[in-house]
Structures are given as C-alpha cells and as structure tokens.
Amino acid sequence: MAGTLLLCTAMLGCAERHIYQPSKLPLEFQAKPVPDLRNIPLPEFADQSVASDVIMSGDVVEVTVATDLESRPNAVPVRVDDFGIIQVPYIGPVQVGGLRFADAERAIAAAAVERDIFRHPTVTVVRSQTRTHRVTVVGAVNKPGVYELPASNSSVLAALVAAEGLNSKAGPIVEIHRAGSDPSSAERLPLTAEADASDGVRPAAWNASGSLRVQQINLTSSAGSPSEYRLSDGDVVRVAEREALPFFVDGLVAKPGSYAMPPDQPIRILDAV
C-alpha cells in the first residue's frame, strides 16, 4: 500500500511539472512571432537615387554640334560605353558618364576647342534611349513577371513596385539570384562579403569561383548598404511565401485540433480557446 501511494505521488508530481501558467510558459513552448509585414520599411531597400538627367553607361544620346560651318547641323546618336565615354564625330572621345546633360555639353564643347576642332561650338545633348535591366520577379507578389527597369533605378524596391507589391501570402524573406558571375564587372558594385545576420542580408549560396550568386534579404531586419539591393540585368527576385505556423488546442474545448496562425496579428489564450 505504501509503495502504491508513493508511486501515485511520484506520478502526480511528474504531471504537475508539465502544467504551466500562460505567463510562465517556457520559451521552447512559446509560438514564434509572426512578422508584421505592414510595418516593413520598403523605402530602405531602394538603391541610391540618380537624377533623371544624369548620363549612364549604356545610354544612347544624340549629340548636335552647331558651328558657323553648317546652317542645319544634324544630331548624331552615340552610345555611352562601359567607361562613360562617347565618340563624337570630328571631336573624338569625350567622358560624359555620370554628368548631367548641361555638364556633358560643356565637356564636349571644351574638348572641341582644346583639340582645335571648332572655336565656338554650340553643343546639345539629348538622351534617346535609356539603358534598362531585365529583372524577373516571382513568388509571393501580386503580379509576377519580367520587367524592364531603368539601370539608374534598378533596385529591390523598384522590382517589388513593378510587381505591384507583396501579396497576402508573402513572408519576410527575399532572394536575389544574381545572373552574372564576374564580381569585377563595372556594372556591379561589391556585395556584402562580410555581411552578417544583423544587417538583414546574408549570402545564401556561392558558385565555384567564389562569387556571390544568391543573396538573401530579411525585409523585417534593418537595411544595409544601398548597393546591396542594386539589381543587374538578368537578376531574379523571389519573394518566399510565409511559413504556415500552426498552433494546437487540446483538452476540454469544443473543437480541439490544429489551427493556422493568423498573419500580422498575435494570438492569445482566449483567442485560441
């Protein structure tokens, strides 16, 4: 009898150790918080803004040089190379990349005078074609597809805006699948080789040559350097769907079972019951 009582007491003691008050629930038994995507600071994931009248590599501009020798000068289309240089007829190479139109006009006129080509030229520069990056956006967005983004404003934010934003199934993780494998390309700035998780940006995969191919961003974390969110031609942006986190209700309730954790709102004991 004493042995039976001792056994029952031990069993009751074990049972009591597995009963917790809601305010004292151990961390390992608490539900993971569901991130509130309504408060994501999306503007932080934009690239550095570039003025609309700045000439970029890959742009096509029309250059008109008016002199006393011609009554009706013709506009000549020229493409800006990867080094920001254009070849102006009769004048030669002129550095215009990163300059505003007015500054580029002055640079061309100064080159013509310095090289003793023209004495008092009047130069006009007009952009006829903007370089674009073709970016694919897939996953939990409202309108997946392939979008042409201006090279001067090709960022994660621009890609998400082009895809009409995140849908109701979107989670905080965004992957950037980089198309190029040459980290020394003039088009691509150095990425976050030493980035850690505290920046919200971390390498997700590497190729054989050691260059970053897949970059993972957590939208709920603090944004890092703007260059980390710059997109190049051929990149793919994938928004992962939110992980379905169920919770379980058991015991003396009307409908025990598994229930889906509602997004963007906490679930309390009374809500679950």
Spell out the blueprint of helices and strands.
Layout: H1 2-16, E1 60-66, E2 76-79, E3 85-88, E4 92-95, H2 101-114, E5 122-129, E6 132-139, E7 145-150, H3 156-162, E8 170-177, E9 201-206, E10 212-218, E11 236-241, E12 246-249, E13 257-260, H4 269-272
Parallel strand pairs: 6-11
Antiparallel strand pairs: 1-2, 1-5, 3-4, 6-7, 8-10, 8-11, 9-10, 12-13
Molecular structure report:
It is a single chain. This protein folds into 3 domains: 125 residues, Outer membrane lipoprotein wza fold like (Roll); 70 residues, wza like domain (wza like fold, 2-Layer Sandwich); 29 residues, no CATH class. The protein has 273 residues and is of the alpha+beta class. The two termini are 41 Å apart. The longest helix has 15 residues. The protein is 15% helix and 28% strand. A hairpin with a 5-residue loop joins strand 9 and strand 10. The chain has 4 helices and 13 strands. The N terminus is likely disordered. The strands form 4 sheets. The chain has a 6-stranded mixed sheet, covered by helices on one side. Strands 2-1-5 form a 3-stranded antiparallel sheet, covered by helices on one side. It has a two-stranded antiparallel sheet with strand order 3-4.
